[in-house]
Amino acid sequence: MKYDPQQDRWVVVLGNREYGLHCGEYLELSVSQSRIACRLELDSEWYVVMQDTLFNLRTQDTYRVTI
């Protein structure tokens, strides 16, 4: 998953295609060797909700996810 500044949203790249994500979408974020279920949200910045924990996404970073 990477941030697309032109669309102002996160996208998942599969092959030659990009799929834009929206607020409220569920995904699994890979952290070390684990996959953590989370939900993508937007306030003043993009973040994911994991159980009761909020994790701000850094637009300059790329994240490994499963959708």
Description of the structure:
The protein is globular, with a radius of gyration of 11 Å. It has a single domain (2-66), classed as Thrombin, subunit H (Beta Barrel), CATH 2.40.10. The N and C termini lie close together (10 Å). β6 (46-50) and β7 form a beta hairpin. The strands form two sheets. Strands 7-6-5-4-8 form a five-stranded antiparallel β-sheet, with no helix packed on it. Strands 1-2-3 form a three-stranded antiparallel β-sheet, with no helix packed on it. Helices cover 0% and strands 58% of the residues. The chain is mostly beta strands. The mean pLDDT is 94.
Largest sheet: 5 strands, antiparallel
Question: Helix count?
Answer: 0
* Residue runs with pLDDT of under 50 for 5 or more positions: none
- CATH hierarchy class name: Mainly Beta
CATH architecture level-2 label: Beta Barrel
Order of helices and strands: EEEEEEEE
Distance between the termini: 10 Å
Task: List how many beta strands DSSP finds.
Answer: 8
Helix fraction? under 10%
CATH topology: Thrombin, subunit H
* Strand fraction: over 45%
In round numbers, the mean pLDDT is 94
Oligomeric state of this protein: single chain
> Helix- and strand-based class?
mainly beta
Count of the separate structural domains: 1
User: What gyration radius follows from the Cα positions, in whole Å?
Assistant: 11 Å
Task: Tell me the overall shape.
Answer: globular
Q: State the strand order across the main sheet.
A: 7-6-5-4-8
Organism: Desulforamulus putei DSM 12395
Domain DUF5348: 1-67
Pfam families: DUF5348
InterPro entries: DUF5348
